[in-house]
């Protein structure tokens, strides 16, 4: 198959079309939205989406995910990226919001005269 070059990056047309099928079915089944162009370009993201698709236990979505995995050559060779834990800040003091401030914020949106 021929590689299609859109904006400088080469994209395999069959993997792109299968990724759009995964996008449509995943959105219908789970409500999740994915980035198809990024999926075709980044194998780590593709592996994440494939795992997400197979975890839904939807037959059609599993078939598309397996075809995409075979086309992109993704196997168990991609290791999961370990995210660093963000230290929690315990001494965060949030400002007190008074009822008067809340009222002033709401009133300005209620009246047309406030727009002048």
Task: State the end-to-end distance.
Answer: 62 Å
Shape, per Cα inertia axes: elongated
Largest sheet: 2 strands, antiparallel
Structural class: mainly alpha
State mean pLDDT (0 to 100 scale): 75
Strand segment tally = 2
Number of helices: 5
> Helix amount, in percent?
40-55%
Task: Order the strands across the largest sheet as they lie in space.
Answer: 1-2
Give start-end ranges of low-pLDDT stretches: 1-9, 77-83
**What is Rg?**
23 Å
Beta fraction: under 5%
Element string (H = helix, E = strand): EEHHHHH
Gist of the model:
With 116 residues, this protein is mainly alpha-helical.
Describe what you observe in this structure.
Strand 1 (4-5) and strand 2 (10-11) form a beta hairpin. The protein is 53% helix and 3% strand. With 116 residues, the protein is mainly α. It has a two-stranded antiparallel sheet. It has helices at 13-30, 36-41, 43-54, 59-72, 99-110; strands spanning 4-5, 10-11. It has a domain at 4-72. The model is unreliable at 1-9 and 77-83 (pLDDT under 50). It contains five helices and two strands, in the order ββααααα.
Provide key terms for this protein.
2 strands, two-stranded antiparallel sheet, 116 residues, 5 helices, elongated, mainly alpha
Layout of helices and strands, plus pairs?
Elements: E1 4-5, E2 10-11, H1 13-30, H2 36-41, H3 43-54, H4 59-72, H5 99-110
Antiparallel strand pairs: 1-2
């Amino acid at each position: 198959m021929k590689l299609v070059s859109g904006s400088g990056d080469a994209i395999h047309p069959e993997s792109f079309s299968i990724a759009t099928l995964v996008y449509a079915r995943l959105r219908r089944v789970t409500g999740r939205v994915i980035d198809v162009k990024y999926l075709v370009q980044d194998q780590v993201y593709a592996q994440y989406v494939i795992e997400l698709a197979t975890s839904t236990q939807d037959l059609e979505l599993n078939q598309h995910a397996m075809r995409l995995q075979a086309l992109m050559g993704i196997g168990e060779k991609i290791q999961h990226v370990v995210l660093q834990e963000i230290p929690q800040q315990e001494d965060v003091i949030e400002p007190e919001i008074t009822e008067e401030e809340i009222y002033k914020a709401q009133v300005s949106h209620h009246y047309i005269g406030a727009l002048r």
